[in-house]
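Box 3.1 A note on notation
Throughout this textbook, protein chains are presented in two layers. The first layer is the amino acid sequence; the second is a token string describing backbone geometry. Keep the layers aligned when reading.
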Amino acid sequence: MELFKTMGNIDDNNHQDKLDENVEKVKCLIIGSGPAGYTAAIYAARANLSPVLIQGLQPGGQLTTTTDVDNFPGYPEGISGPEMMEDLRKQAERFGTDIRWGMVTSVDFSNNKRKVIVDNKNQIEAESVIISTGADARYLGIESEEKFKGSGVSACATCDGFFYKGKNVAVVGGGDTACEESVYLAGMCKKVYLIVRKNYLRASKAMQEKVANTPNIETLFEHNTKEVTGDKVVTGLTLIKRKGEKDEQEVKINIDGFFLAIGHVPNSKFFKPYIDTDEVGYIKTIPGTTKTNVEGVFAAGDVQDPHYRQAITSAGSGCMAAIDAERYLSSKS
């Protein structure tokens, strides 16, 4: 789910006049409420920046769709994704963060402005902005995939691979990420099926060699996923194998986990007129910082991270963004 979407240009003069009559001014505005957003809020609040955080359509971000989180420091027995995000929210509120329901529907970062419209009606002018809108994993779009999310279907091998130790799993994808996740899973799983739609891998030669040299990875070329099967949890996969141009064969395999590795979509679409992004849409930041090309605007979490995409790295960059924002504001005072 894309957390923040443009709802069109606000070009009606009467409407704009009404907006201008009620402009709220804040020191620090945080857009997004995942680990990056909440951590930025904690640090910004403790720095007396009086942060306002807009939660978006999915308060808590992607982790609210995750069952168990075992790799976030400080939870020795693990914790559910929704519980962890509730803890982060409460901690941000404890230090005075103003957390609001709502969706950012438009921004204007031109000419050193930092104007944000929430729910098409509330205008905020911020001295600093932290973008932490995250990225959404791409899914195949089949009904059974949705049914088993969090019960055997995952888009993060690093996050969830541990739960499938000694079991059989499948990874869908043909690029470097799919190969990397297959090799990672092969180190703990009994068998890994790599499901590739085409008759070749798009991954680099080095990654292709790693896959080929890992004995418990079986690559199934020219296979498409038809259905994820099971009762309460995943137990199998139905595939369609192409045989020539017209013939198809149904193939069934037994698996316990199904991993998607077909890419992510950063939620940066409506920032693009002002903020530099790469070809995929990830926001570019100055190396070693969270600074964007727009003065006073910072980016943290998965929206600017095409490599790691972990809760802990998102939280770390949220911390960095708040510190960068505080230093920026101090330099202007």
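The two ends are 39 Å apart (CA to CA). Residues 1-10 have pLDDT under 50 and may be disordered.
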